[in-house]
Amino acid sequence: MDSLGLLMEGFAGALTPANLMWVLLGCLLGTAVGVMPGLGSSMAVALLLPMTFALDPTAAFIFFAGVYFGGLFGDSTMAILMNTPGQASAIASTFEGHKMAMSGRAPQALATAAIGAFIGGFVASVVVVFFAPLLADLSTYFGPAEYFALALFAFVATSSVVSDSVPKGLSALVIGLGISTVGIDSVTGTERFTLGVPQLFDGISIVTVTVAILALGEVFFIASRARRDKQDLKTRSAGRPWLKLAEFREALPAWLRGTAIGMPFGVIPVGGSEVPTFLAYSVERRLDTRRPSPMFGKGAIRGLAAPEAAGNSTTGMAMGALLALGLPVSATAAILLAAFRQYGLQPGPLLFDRNPDLVWALLASFFIAMVVLLIINLPFAQLWAKLLLIPQPYLYAGIALFCGLGVYATSGRVFDLLLLLGISVVGFLMRRYGYPLAPLIIGMVLGPLAETSIRDALLSSSGDFTILVSSPITWTIYGILAVVLLVAIRSAVVTRVRVRRMKAASAEAVDA
């Protein structure tokens, strides 16, 4: 009850006209930045940080919270409509969300994303309010061995689940891992796969890879099939900007599962919401294979609902981890930590005692931001969907232009534009020959985490590999991974036997 009373006082501070204005402005700016390919909430917060020093801390952090959550909404909008995620956290939403948009359900896809983001963020905010003091206990159980097990789980599970061909999935994963190793080795200081090119010493940016593989590669693929697959884009944006009751019931379990998957990752520092969004997508895809008529690959609403809820629940918990522990588990949280220090504040347990007005007003603003973003995005879902009314040549030319602008804005180097072009050709070839894109992206995102974790684990144990399986958490993760692999193998065998029987039956029918 004490937490509830403090939260009510926080609402009293957050609901002043000035603070409401900062919440609204932050949500609008975050959404606007999020729809730009290659940009995201972390860049928005970094750019706006110097401009907020004239504000009092409460107003500044309420504004940043709006930008943080609004950026996730904007990322999802472009991921769904243009297959162009602003950040890696929206990648999983492209797989089914973009297919929904291309099949004439763009407004419903955007509504699914908005409601999922609201549910995930709202539930996470409730948990943060009542359980912030207990967050430290969860994060202390994870060390290098546990992080490596988690990364390995994501590698194998994603490669085996999201692809109909396991060899193709593993091949895509290897490409992603290879890209992640380019640059100067942080431990030995040696060059790796740079070919002596100085511009590659810092590695290849995840922004360049995601924009190249998911956006510009898609442009090339569409252009290569333009004459063969003539489509009317005007039919794609038709539809109601809300969900039917049946669609809501279909998405609700996925929203809840995604929220549950995403919340623990807001405390575990694995780099942000990329891991839980991929895991939520993988869980829904695996469950979809058990249904009489699988929908994944055709625009499954659950394949969009789960990653959206997972990403926003992770974000909500990440803000709680930052406030309660001083633990930044994502790039944006790290920038916010720097902002706290600029104001002479140190996030952690003492922050709740020394600055309760700021903390509880900020927590209250999370709920307000969720409602504001839902109000902003649901009515405008059909308006955003009208982007698909643009004639195809202009639409994809515009996407290509924004891809280049987004990548150039993050680095300011012409070399990255050439890199963008080269990697987009790889993306085009992968689409052309049926290689999945998700394993490549997750290999790129989690490759550095896996490498750093296994090195730290082996260094701490003097090279003893048994440390990788020395804790109950690692046993649990590897056990779940073994179950996932067995289920995947069984599913593949059953599918192959079924196909053979169908072929045999059809051959007998022809003979008869």
TrEMBL record:
Coiled coil: none annotated. Keywords: Membrane, Transmembrane, Transmembrane helix. Residues 20-442 form the DUF112 domain. Pfam families: TctA. The chain crosses the membrane at residues 20-39, 59-81, 109-135, 141-162, 169-188, 200-223, 321-340, 360-380, 387-408, 414-430, 437-455, 475-493. PANTHER family: TRICARBOXYLIC TRANSPORT PROTEIN. This is Tripartite tricarboxylate transporter permease TctA. It comes from Corynebacterium kalidii.
